[in-house]
């Protein structure tokens, strides 16, 4: 009996940490196939490239935990990145422009959340429309052309957020782990986090138990928008300009990271740590394929196969009702 219990517990442990195990296997295979993969410079490059997707994905995790979806985060990144570039070019210091940019992203998320929560419109439809509209605003705002952050001390300070280093480690990596710790604390150690899980687990029961479901829904879309805006800041700072077409398909990579990390698309189940690992899986996979000289077209196929496998494993491991 004890042996059966131990085997069941071990199997459950493997299932719960499948994304982390997949990351370990992927790193080991990549290291075996390329001597340059485990070099410090390349590992830092992987983390830096992963940071933008990870930041977006951690915000999207909140939405998916409530059984929602947000397809607008890539467009929000583009528009808020343009806002950040304009404010920086005008001489506004980063300590003012960055919070302003994040607030604008949160506001865009709130608008989507209001339609989902109070308009009772499916999240897929609302955020699909938002993606189109916000992308249009980004193109109008930039006139279809890049917006440079300019030069001088203000621009240099802003650039540090995307291209700078501290203690030999790129600043975006610090920002990624800061967002991870913040989201982890909110989701797993606050009443709000418990309510997010409750809404995703069973919205009707959550409503009957006194949880303000509409407020929770609006809040999670605001969080997703804020994270997308921060990612927009990092990308704009790194490039030195805001690109009108920035963030194209980023929403798909973010959702992929969340799903690979074990968060259920049905809501109510998932972890921020899993999302971070899922983003790293995608980052390592892209980097390894680049090192091996694999065409970007085949990279898309490989990424799609990994996502499909993650969804299949999730559906197989989900307890039957």
TrEMBL record:
The chain crosses the membrane at residues 50-69, 102-118, 125-144, 164-187, 218-240, 272-291. GO terms for molecular function: transmembrane transporter activity. It is a multi-pass membrane protein. It holds the Pfam family BPD_transp_2. One of its GO terms (cellular component) is plasma membrane. Keywords: Cell inner membrane, Cell membrane, Membrane, Transmembrane, Transmembrane helix, Transport. InterPro entries: ABC_transp_permease. This is Ribose transport system permease protein. It comes from Billgrantia gudaonensis.
